[in-house]
Design goal:
Blueprint (H helix, E strand, L loop, with lengths): L1 E2 L2 E2 L11 H10 L7 H14 L4 H8 L4 H8 L7 H13 L35 H10 L5 H11 L4 H18 L9 H15 L3 H20 L26 H10 L2 H13 L3 H4 L7 E2 L4 E4 L8 E4 L2 H9 L4 E4 L8 E5 L8 E2 L6 H8 L2
Parallel strand pairs: 1-7
Antiparallel strand pairs: 2-8, 3-4, 4-5, 6-7
Helix pairs in contact: 1-11, 1-15, 2-3, 2-12, 3-4, 7-8, 7-10, 9-10
Length: 368
Amino acid sequence: MREYRCPARHRIVPYTSIRKSLSSAGHRAGLGHVRPHDLRHTFVTRLLDLGVPIEQVNYLAGHKSMAMTKRYDHANEERYGGAIEALDEAGKTGSAEGVGGGEVEAEVAIEKIPAEHGPAPAGRGCIPADQRLEQVRDNRRVTFQEAVDLYLEQCELAARSLKEDRTRLLRICQDWGEIPISTINSGHIESWLAKNKRKSKWSSATRNRYLSAVKQVFKKAHGLNYLADNPALPLKATKEDENIPEPLTDDAVAALLEVLPEYARYMVCILVDTGLRMSELHRIRWQDVDTAGRRLNIYKSKSKQFRVVPMTPRLAALFDSLRTGNQWLQSQSGPSRKAIIWPDDSSPSVVVIPPINIKKSLVTLCNR
């Protein structure tokens, strides 16, 4: 057996993919296709079902907007039926006391949510209008490609989001790369999106992702005085069909854990009890884990906001059980067999499994 170890900048969760393992386990358990994001959806929906205020759920999930959290809330609209019935009953008796039922005690201990840290940063400083117009004239030959390159160089996006934006903008640059960005107007943008949506049979969601990337480039260009006005600003996203999966029940989660390998079970338990994104899961360090105070500190997230996720007693016990470290063999056999290392908390210079691909071995194990 060979062990693969490397410095991991204090990361404590092995950098492995459990997507195919979850999917295979889901089919074996009779649940169909299961994704890691379904575990995040289960976490959010459970909190809403337990009566946790949506503002707190929004914070714990790390959603950038309240609208995203409300999309999860709509997945269980039937739970509002009782309130409507109570309101109807109150109309008959002349009292509204029935509305609200009783207090629902959440399993997760929601601690006080930190307040927002100060006002939003101020925008670029004001300059005289004639000076700004002069800068716009000087920049009139800046091409769309040059604006895209500058945006991609200076934007602060997660690696996956940056890769997706780069791919979309590369496609747009095939048509607009050499065109001065100051000559592109709203009609050009709308026409390009409509033509490619029709030609490539895009969904509304795909069209909106391209529009979002274009808006970011034009916002950057406008802020640098490449443009007098931002032509992308008035363009609106089209309505998308909501495709929110059903949350997993307790029985479904138990069925998954029954057929997953041990190290994958640890990851699933963390995801179900915290609602973390996969990218956040693999950034956890031991210094972020406070099992005594039952707090998990998330410093880097998709929304670029620090947040504290309270731990359930089960999750705190799980992390404590792993403080001494652990290791598991991968599922394949033969001389190339590797070990997955979960580091202990004895040193800040911990080591974990390097980012190797274990999808095939996980699928093989789940299908035995």
